[in-house]
Amino acid sequence: MPIAKTLYDKIWDAHIAHEDEDGTCLLYIDRHLVHEVTSPQAFEGLRMAGRTVRAPHKTIAVPDHNVPTTLDRAKGIDNVESRIQVEALDKNAKDFGVHYYPVSDIRQGIVHIVGPEQGWTLPGMTVVCGDSHTATHGAFGALAHGIGTSEVEHVLATQTLIQKKSMNMKVQITGSLKPGVTAKDITLSVIGKTGTAGGTGYVIEYCGEAIRDLSMEGRMTICNMAIEGGARAGLIAPDEKTFEYCKGRPHAPKGKDWDRALDYWRTLFSDEDAHFDKVVTIKGEEIAPVVTWGTSPEDVLPINSKVPAPNDFEGGKIGAVERSLEYMGLNPGTPLEDVTIDTVFIGSCTNGRIEDLRAAAEILKGKKIKEGLRGMVVPGSGLVRAQAEEEGLADIFKDAGFEWRLAGCSMCLAMNPDQLKPGERCAATSNRNFEGRQGRGGRTHLMSPQMAAAAAVTGKLTDVRNLI
Amino acid sequence: MEKFNKLTGIAAPMPLVNIDTDMIIPKQFLKTIKRSGLGANLFDEMRFDQDGKEIPDFVLNKKAYRNAEIIIAGDNFGCGSSREHAPWALLDFGIKCVISTSYADIFYNNCFKNGILPIVLKPEEVELLMEDSKKGENARISIDLEKQIVQSSEGIEFSFEIDAFKKHCLLNGLDDIGLTMEKVSSIDKFEKSYQEEKPWL
Fold it and tell me: Mean per-residue pLDDT for A127-150?
């Protein structure tokens, strides 16, 4: 009688190239995504040891964190260190013969948007990248997670990763979402419930009707933030939506290979009796549009709430909340809907895809952003940008008063020119609200694209349901 | 990678929970193409004000802790980004060991790749060491990796668990890639049958 396996168990078992007695495995890696920030030392390490990239055809590189998003970026990168890093990736990609989308290529963009867009990410794969939001690719039923630079070097040299298996965690979102509630609200609400360490030591599988109902882009938003809940990886079992998304993409299998792949992909689900070490259930109907108020992704509240007080919490969190409130310049008891913002950022690997832009445009159509507010829409890739222009979304953003940028990580993290000044407060569709993330002293409130668009119109954190 | 066996040093208390890797090394310092030199920017935004002047109250700026080799930290140390620049910055500053109740996964693994020992102890044990470390230069804490023991400045001992393979690599300063290359025939064999089974990959 075969043991019931979870999806994670199945993918893990299919990739063991070697197993030690103590359970430490060499896990074979199907796709290695690379960007300019966490790879220079890895490639340098290879050179110094006289090693090559074992599987350059399975290695895909693209610069995204440092690149400017302004229209004049073809002239070059002003910041010397950023330029050096991007040039290092240009050189490394060429020297080691890996697939590469340079800044000048229309397919360039945020690595976790480009991978799926180009059909590099497929169900059942192991996918790694020197970036914690690699978890995004789990939306395809792939085992995808972030790695450090030393591990990047290890994968380049051996196409394997030294890993011990994590435990299985199930996050069920039952029922259906109410209007105005999105994938971003689901993923933030999960972290609000489990905390930023709730998933540590686990791989999460997201399931339930509300998950099934999501589009592939919605599923990518969900999995993207698995790491913010502590889980290295998040998975969603593939289904017809997944196969439809992959079909015909440049690097997806074709012809007979497609049929063979499809047969295999249809086996990628957790068996009915499979054991999960931890289960969290949330009712879809009970999820409201949320925002973060503090400096941790777990500081989540429905928009109609008030800023909490330190004594609403316990233990070490009390001191952390005191610190957060001071950093964020917020007083306990203030209704979140009274908090004024001065900047809006729509983009990032969490919410920089075409559906996110459509959703934001829907709210902004025929409206203007609040006077004095600075707004930026940064599409996740050159192709997303082109599609948004074709659909007239770019015009809606520009007419509303937003800056319409080129693709890159942009204001998610202040490694490129798109930054907050100290004390500025931003409604952002990105994934981290840590101190200084968007710029030293910058204050970040995370939310969905619709909620960010609503905040742009009113100049305050706003319940998007009042505008639809 | 440097070997780690025994360490006796000053421990700096950092009781804040959820210290994330953006705090440990802010993103502007990720632009380096080297592994070294980040010690100067460790905890930058907590350590220096906007004009670059030291913030006197920050623990690592205090005289007693400027040469700290150990950090006693609040829960979930190292959460957030996977940047290995975080352990690089710690190491370059001189920190060789962190003691907490819990760590984020990726940060935990990254430590071992760089010869830093992250120790997991129970909450009451971390609390005792946190109090101990507040004595500053008078509190030297000792770690023995071979015996898996932490000793407070007053000789109170706590034992800790650690993965045997990780311990072995740390004690011997072993390079991961070199170790894996010894198993390359297993990788070759796996790859061959894998490609036959799944030719679309």
Answer: 97
Is pLDDT above 90 for A128? yes
Q: What is the 3-state secondary structure (H, E, C) of A363-381?
A: HHCCCCCCCCCEEEECCCE
> How far is residue A376's CA from residue A369's CA, in Å, rounded to a whole number?
11
pLDDT averaged over every residue in chain B: 94
Residue A65 to residue B28, Cβ atoms within 8 A:
no
> Would an 8 Å CB–CB cutoff place B120 in contact with chain A?
no
> Which sign, positive or negative, has the C-alpha torsion A151, A155, A161, A167?
positive
Give the mutation candidate from A134, A158, A322 for the B interface (greatest B CB count, under 10 A): A158
List the structure tokens of A1: 């009688």
Q: Report the predicted TM-score, pTM, of the whole model to 2 decimal places.
A: 0.94
Minimum-distance CB partner of A320 among B16, B27, B191: B16
Per-position DSSP letters for A25-57, written without gaps between them: EEEE-SEEEE-SSSSHHHHHHHHHHT---S-GG
Q: Copy the structure tokens of residue A421.
A: 């000044």
ipTM reported for the complex surpasses 0.85: yes
Q: What is the pLDDT of residue B201?
A: 86
B23 neighbors B45 (Cβ within 8 angstroms): yes
B121: closest CA among B148, B84, B87?
B148
3-state helix, strand, coil in chain B (%, to 5): 40, 20, 40
